[in-house]
Amino acid sequence: MSARFELPQFVVDRVVAVALEEDLGSGDLTTEACVDPDAMAVAHAVARGPLVVCGGSVFARSFTRVDPSLVVAVHADDGAEIGAAARIWTVRGRARSILMAERVALNLVQRMCGVATMTHAYVQAIPVGAKARVTDTRKTTPGLRALERYAVRVGGGHNHRDDLGAAVLIKDNHRAACGGTRQAIQRARAAAPHTTKIECEVDSLDQLDEAVAAGADIVLLDNMSTRAIQEAVRRVGDRALLEASGGMTLSRIPEVANAGVDAISVGALTHSVSAADIGLDFES
Predict the structure, then answer these.
(1) Considering 103, 161, 182, 187, which one is annotated as catalytic?
(2) What's this model's pTM, rounded to 2 decimal places?
(3) Given 87, 139, 161, 197, which residue is catalytic?
(4) CATH classification at residue 190
(5) Known catalytic residue: 103?
(6) CB 3.0-4.6 Å disulfide test: which of 89, 128, 148, 241 passes with 218?
């Protein structure tokens, strides 16, 4: 299937430019020594195992930024589920240019495909009939947040707040710094734009009761047992949205979703994901 999401081109350009400067800023001694300037090549990006495809525009831009004459063909769109040995993209043109961009292109798309593949597994673990959605967190790789959050969407998940200015999320240290749950929620309500919902993190049922009574729109249940989550759902009803977070392994997703929460946020989607195994194979 084709993903309905897009990455803004200026974001792709910025990330690719920084990555290429890091890897290619002083040239490519090996390629310049071994490969003739006029040599041409065809190389295929091939999945070494099952994965969800993600990052086609990033892959292509990594090559065309080095050499605009390179041509990239797409065999599987972002969001497609493919198996081992499947071709994802093909790049044609000057062999030197392909070799110079290869590592950057693979580093970025392996990360993105890994995030999309892991997210897809978590989304598939939500039982039929459960209303919970799987979301990411701000525990992203510095400089790669836009790419990783795009990959979460491609994998079927949802994004949490983009950055600190995107939403109010009162955490334990905010409560400690301002004197308590009620005070933090009241101050946030008074200062935040009228379009902003107030979310408050709690780690006990007593804190939950206080947060809901103070008018929190969303309550984040942090590192609670499944039994405590079930009790939280019973107590809150429809007075606030409930998000469960902390220790959300793949095996735990079904029971937490069945407890009745509205969202399950999973930091592991971006901070602990394994890169997908993708190789770039040159034709003989």
Answers:
(1) 103
(2) 0.95
(3) 139
(4) 3.20.20.70
(5) yes
(6) 241
